[in-house]
Amino acid sequence: MNLYTRTGDKGKTSIIGGRVDKDDLRVEAYGTIDELNSFVGQAMTLLKEPAFQDIYQELEKVQHELFDCGGDLAVIHEKQKSPYKANEEMVKFLEERIDAYTAEAPPLQRFILPGGSPAAAAIHVARTVARRAERRTVSLQKETEIHSVVPKYLNRLSDYFFAAARVINYRSSLNDIEYERSAVVFKERPKEQD
Fold this sequence. Notes:
Elements: E1 12-15, E2 18-21, H1 25-44, H2 53-73, H3 88-104, H4 118-143, H5 149-171
Antiparallel strand pairs: 1-2
Helix pairs in contact: 1-2, 1-4, 2-5, 3-5, 4-5
Enzyme class: transferase
GO molecular function: ATP binding; corrinoid adenosyltransferase activity
Family: Belongs to the Cob(I)alamin adenosyltransferase family.
């Protein structure tokens, strides 16, 4: 199998349903998701200790889901023949993990500086790339119809990374450093009534 095809030498690439310029918004969106997936893989190399096995396994799940999201964006909507792969259950899982990690880490009131342990710092990098992937996806959504779960998933994923980075620091006995000029921005939400 050849890894090179020479078909993209003139600035075009194939997507599901046709060919587009390599700087097309669709390619930019799923390409940023691919970049994010690489940063997640890099962060995983720093999470080999037993205290982080749950996060490591979740990140491996996220890597598969990022492939799903990228694949869903690589399809021209009108040419979609099979169901999309990204689904609401993926979003719900992230929300459950965010809630669990938020409960585990110390209460937070102010913005924090990205960093702490090498693993937490790597997760913060993934968080910022997830935000960029979300922005690229929103730009694409303004131009054409896309699978609506993808931007929702990316939004939750960046929140998941924030919560996971805080827990990694907490389990490493490191305090998050608050941004010194931050106002109180995180407030306790009132409990929902049954």
